[in-house]
Design brief:
The radius of gyration is 24 Å and the shape is globular. Strands 1, 2, 5, 14, 15 and 16 form a six-stranded mixed beta sheet that branches. Strands 8-17-13-9-12 form a five-stranded mixed beta sheet. Strands 3-4 form a two-stranded antiparallel sheet. The termini are far apart. By secondary structure, the chain is α+β, with helices and mostly antiparallel strands. It contains twelve helices and 17 strands. It has two domains: about 240 residues, no CATH class; about 120 residues, no CATH class.
Length: about 400
């Protein structure tokens, strides 16, 4: 019963943290993140102590055997927790790359949207290369200057340092008694989940100002950018998920790139919708009863994936191809973990802030479309009367 209550507290705190990201208020984000990390800590302590020394179960739950470098990092980490404020440095050494890789692996394994886009872990590099999808990406025979220029422009550099992502957590001093293995699991859990929440919101609707450019933003040459903020795309109504309606919707909005090239890869379509709208709109629009009296469906009439997201409000969805959005993350070399005693309203706590660089954008305007699904029709079986149609 206690664990169920703790899980409920984590869910409630997660909702508060998601809501805080929409405010762009750093102090509000920080406080919501700290409350969330405290709820996660309490839940993890209960589970960890319940497992005892069952190594197989510990491994199944994500508790790892640490490398020598990782142990050394966490020993310094715990000294920072134990020391009085005047006795510790504000910046810890950079996270070992093995921890960074594991955090990013968890991001794609546990969060469907991040797994569906072109996700790049850049390590300590601060730039990633993304395709710009140009018609003349290759040419036969003699290459004139014009073709050379077009081939060069077939790629663009995404500068990750333009968008710094800060994640806050509370480090209870009780962590010291839990040991390095628990601390490792806690740090990776806090970082991967908080980064995922922030990334998902930015990937879907980031303004482009000090954050990624969202799927719902205009990125063509005519895009209006005001004080670094990219204008949002005009929403297009989607009335039904039957094959004809959805086929026309995709064909009219995202099947042809901005430069007129027809897309041939139709296997990674994403239908991103609010979680509540999945039950109220998407499920009824994709489910029918067959001749055996069984309900079947829950899938799109085209190859694709339905992804519920807390970053969208009801009545609104995003459709597009996941491979056409590139998001890159990098860790700063000069220290990515900071410790502070600013959160004085909670005793025996030390605030922990982790810094990473993240940025992303879609290939072009045709990669994604904003869809209005407020009036989405439920699915039904249609029967065609051949005799009437012939007459």
């Amino acid at each position: 019963m206690k664990n169920l209550m703790e899980i409920s507290k984590v869910a409630e705190a997660t909702s508060m943290m998601v809501a805080s990201w929409a405010t762009n208020d750093e102090e509000q984000i920080k406080q919501a993140s700290e409350k969330w990390s405290q709820a996660v800590f309490e839940q993890m302590v209960h589970e960890y102590e319940a497992m005892g020394n069952d190594r197989a179960e510990l491994a199944r739950r994500g508790y790892r055997t640490l490398t020598t470098e990782e142990k050394g990092f966490y020993e310094k980490f715990m000294k920072q927790l134990e020391a009085p404020q005047a006795a510790y440095a504000d910046v810890l050494p950079a996270l070992p790359v093995t921890i960074i890789n594991d955090i990013y692996k968890n991001l794609t394994n546990e969060h469907p949207l991040l797994d569906a886009v072109n996700f790049v872990n850049a390590g300590y590099s601060t730039k990633v290369l993304a395709s710009n999808r140009t018609i003349a990406a290759a040419a036969w025979g003699h290459i004139p200057a014009q073709i050379t220029q077009e081939i060069t422009s077939a790629f663009k550099i995404i500068d990750l340092t333009q968008a710094k992502l800060s994640c806050y957590a509370l480090l209870p001093q009780d962590l010291i008694r839990m040991g390095a293995t628990f601390l490792d699991a806690y740090v990776r859990k806090i970082l991967s989940d908080s980064i995922a929440v922030a990334l998902e919101a930015a990937i879907i609707s980031g303004t482009g100002k000090d954050q990624p450019i969202g799927m719902d933003r205009k990125v063509d040459a005519q895009a209006v950018v005001t004080d670094g903020v990219y204008a949002q795309k005009t929403e297009v109504a989607l009335a039904s998920l039957d094959p004809e309606t959805m086929g026309a919707f995709i064909g009219n909005n995202i099947a042809i790139s901005d430069n007129g090239v027809a897309k041939t890869n139709m296997n990674d379509l994403l239908f991103i919708c609010p979680a509540v709208d999945y039950w109220k709109k998407i499920m009824p629009a994709t489910t029918v009863m067959n001749a055996m009296g069984q309900y079947v469906g829950g899938v799109l009439p085209v190859p694709g994936k339905i992804i519920p997201s807390a970053a969208l409000t009801t009545g609104h969805a995003i459709l597009g191809f996941g491979s056409e959005y590139t998001v890159g993350l990098a860790a700063p070399k000069d220290g990515s973990v900071f410790v502070s005693d600013e959160a004085k309203f909670i005793e025996d706590m030390r605030t922990f802030k982790a810094i990473t660089y993240a940025n992303g954008r879609a290939f072009d305007n045709s990669s994604f479309v904003r869809a209005g699904i407020a009036s989405l029709e439920p699915a039904y079986i249609r029967v065609k009367n051949i005799e009437v149609a012939t007459a």
